[in-house]
Amino acid sequence: MKLVGIVGSNADFSYNRLLLQYIKKHFKSLIDIEILEIKDIPLFNQSLDQTDSASIQKLNRKILNADGVIIATPEHNHTIPAG
């Protein structure tokens, strides 16, 4: 099974990244997981459509070619961060 794991944090140190790396290492006999970063993904801007940007299209292709997606995101004040 091919999965994509998206690190939902742009911080250099992230427990979410560590979690995905743990999953990749300890479950490699069951799943193939590719870990992707959001650092190069532009923040949403309603006035500027960036759907066709290279980074968005790369992420889109990876997701479409995967059997599933894991999003590991931090929690701030009982919700997900804007990024």
Provide an overview of this structure.
The chain is an alpha/beta fold. The chain has one domain: 3-Layer(aba) Sandwich (Rossmann fold), CATH 3.40.50. Helix content is 28%, strand content 20%. The chain has a three-stranded parallel sheet, sandwiched between helices. Helix 1 links the parallel strand 1 and strand 2. The longest helix has 12 residues, at 15-26. The chain is globular. It starts with a strand and ends in an 11-residue tail after the last strand.
What's the arrangement of secondary structure elements?
Blueprint: E1 2-7, H1 15-26, E2 32-37, H2 54-64, E3 68-72
Parallel strand pairs: 1-2, 1-3
